[in-house]
Amino acid sequence: MTTVAVLGGGIGGLAASYYLCKSPQVTKVIVLESSSRFGGWLSSTRRSDGAVFEHGPRGIRPAGAVGRNTLNMVDDLGLGGEILPVDYSHVASKNRYVYVNKQLHRMPSGISGLLRTVPPFSRPLLLNVAKEILVRKGKEDDETIHSFVSRRLGKELADIAVDSLCRGVFAGDCRKLSVRSCFPVLFNAEQRRGSLTLGMLLGSGPTPLLPPGPLAQRSQTESWAQWSLRSGMQSFPESLSEFLQQSGRVQLHRDAGVQHITPAASGWKIELEDGVISADHIISAMPAKALSSVLPPSCQPLSQLLQDISMVTVAVVNLEYEGSILPVTGFGHLIPSSENPVVLGVVYDSVPFPQHNRPEGHTTRLTVMMGGAWFQEVFGSPETVTDECLLAKATEAVRSQLGVTSAPCWSWVALQKDCIPQYYQGHFRKVESMRHLIKENNLSLSLIGSSYDGVSVNDVIFSGRTAAEELIGAAV
Ligand SMILES: Cc1cc2nc3c(=O)[nH]c(=O)nc-3n(C[C@H](O)[C@H](O)[C@H](O)COP(=O)(O)OP(=O)(O)OC[C@H]3O[C@@H](n4cnc5c(N)ncnc54)[C@H](O)[C@@H]3O)c2cc1C
Ligand SMILES: C=CC1=C(C)c2cc3[nH]c(cc4nc(cc5[nH]c(cc1n2)c(C)c5CCC(=O)O)C(CCC(=O)O)=C4C)c(C)c3C=C
């Protein structure tokens, strides 16, 4: 007989509640969300003419155990018919660009891409890959991504490809981010096989056994590279919260910001603006810093560690243009920090998901993402930057990088404050210490969400499942 309070109603908190309500051991689940809607960063604008624009995630990968897990949930929610898959043969999967030396370059792919010298790289990448097998294993228990890749594959790949990739996943600086926490597959490949190449060929360690349901099986048969939803990503948390509501076991509260939590004789007292709630267990699905600010002084060492997990701000600017305006076709382009620190990249949304274009007439939808780890240095405080300034920077990037001289016919500026956690070198140690402190102090508390064990939607959902299983003591 357990009451569990889930703090934060982003995709992580909703997912944890979904798994908890599958167990008869949990009597009641209470979700407390400070804002007026559930879903956190999964946020879409659906215009009345049928066009859809994403202000957060726009593609989820089906691969691996975490990808299958999400698709099993999507199936269970009855959302299978809403899926928009993008397979590996699609131009959006084959063509990804980097903008270097004021030019767009298609990232090399396939065997021919490895054998030839493909600009902006100065030699065939096969040489880097072949030499990599001979590089000795690193001795540190963690390393920055830039140092790891420079050591194993060469500085050029680290400066261009990996620098850009880290801006397109973490909006972060690969010279500070941890290889162990951000790319565990690469770290484990070196640890277990002594080489990334051998790790890729032979596998780099055990992965959770997770049988695919019908939708995950379809994704394998049809070779999906990523997927979205017909009415936008926001329909995922909307369906999930409806499912939870209908279960009769989950209370969902919006506009219910947690102010303080205090350990009580059994469990916790949770203070909201307008009342107090008791719970036997807390699953925190809010950002680490937000949890830090509601913990009592008796939890100071834990608060300190939580406070230490930095977040960065991203300006997401959606643009719609009349007609076909792109000079190239593909998923989009990323920009290494040496080329232009402020503009992280541009997604050509109309290419992977033309279904989100307005049905009438022909339009092109783009998203320009700016700031991240470089936000403060270029724009100053997120509190003072104006939408006009962000829109002007975004349209100027589209003009100079894609040669588009026409003005957008529609735009939307979303300033996503503190939206992506930064797993700096040594992150794994902080997370281990947090969980150790929780155990040592017998706190009935689980930490889930993007601050700890992975930032992708799949990782966050899986962290909700893991916490539910640990609490229940069985698989769900
Ligand atoms: C611009 C952008 C693009 C992205 N692109 C992709 C992508 O393409 N693919 C992908 O897989 N991932 C992507 N991600 C990452 C992914 O969307 C996020 O990591 C994930 O959604 C985080 O989910 P969460 O539930 O952990 O956190 P959140 O969504 O941050 O949810 C936490 C919730 O806690 C609430 N909260 C905070 N304080 C309190 C309080 N005191 N009391 C109660 N509630 C509180 C917040 O309001 C919020 O709703 C992207 C992220 C961003 C920002
Ligand atoms: C090509 C342009 C891209 C821009 C600009 C971009 C911005 C951006 N992305 C995130 C967070 C994530 N993106 C993820 C996946 C992902 N992103 C891009 C491209 C751009 N992202 C692609 C092609 C993909 C698909 C992954 C793939 O198939 O290789 C993910 C999930 C990663 C995972 O492991 O599943 C996240 C998280 C932010 C914060 C951001 C803002 C600048």
Task: Describe this protein with a few key phrases.
seven-stranded mixed β-sheet; oxidoreductase; Protoporphyrinogen oxidase; FAD/NAD-bd_sf; Zeta_carotene_desat/Oxidored; five-stranded parallel β-sheet; globular; 19 strands; alpha/beta; membrane; single chain; 476 residues; binds ligand L6N33NVT; binds flavin-adenine dinucleotide
Number of helices: 18
Largest sheet: 7 strands, mixed
Structural class of the secondary structure composition?
A: alpha/beta
- Low-pLDDT stretches are none
Provide the helix percentage. 25-40%
Strand order of the largest sheet: 7-6-15-16-17-14-18
Q: Which of globular, elongated, flat, extended, rod-shaped describes the shape?
A: globular
Mean of the pLDDT scores? 96
- As a percent range, the share of strand residues is 15-25%
Strand element count = 19
Query: What would you report as the Rg, rounded to the nearest angstrom?
Result: 22 Å
Head-to-tail CA distance between termini: 17 Å
Bound molecules: flavin-adenine dinucleotide, ligand L6N33NVT
Descriptive account of the structure:
The protein is of the alpha/beta class. It has 18 helices and 19 strands. It has a seven-stranded mixed sheet. Strands 9-2-1-13-19 form a five-stranded parallel sheet. A three-stranded antiparallel sheet has the order 10-11-12, with no helix packed on it. Helix 1 (11-20) runs parallel beside helix 12 (235-247) and helix 13 (288-294) runs antiparallel to helix 14 (300-307). 47% of the residues are buried. The mean pLDDT is 96. Bound molecules: flavin-adenine dinucleotide (FAD) and the ligand C=CC1=C(C)c2cc3[nH]c(cc4nc(cc5[nH]c(cc1n2)c(C)c5CCC(=O)O)C(CCC(=O)O)=C4C)c(C)c3C=C. GO terms for molecular function: oxygen-dependent protoporphyrinogen oxidase activity.
